[in-house]
Protein: PadR family transcriptional regulator
Organism: Flavobacterium silvisoli
Amino acid sequence: MKNSQLYKGSLTTIVMTLLGENGRMYGYEITQKVKEITKGELKITEGALYPALHKLEAEGVLEVEIENVDNRLRKYYKLTEKGTTETVNRLAELEDFIRNMQALVQPKLDTI
């Protein structure tokens, strides 16, 4: 993945947005969806994803549903009501951040 530092601060927002769009997902499904959407440019590792999921669960943003799939327990994550509100807030913050970054770097890119 290119410039992984740029994505680290956005991991929880990415996860919350995907859950908001898809209802509920399990961990591997989240990693594959990110890979698919970004055409392989962004790959989320399990080592990054699961601590983020557990933190969001502890904060009351996510809830877990456990189902038996092919004789294996699978954890599905979905947004709580608080999580839905928090996702809207984080996306608004992200849009502001992107707009500010564009204002800061665009004039410089145009002169390169």
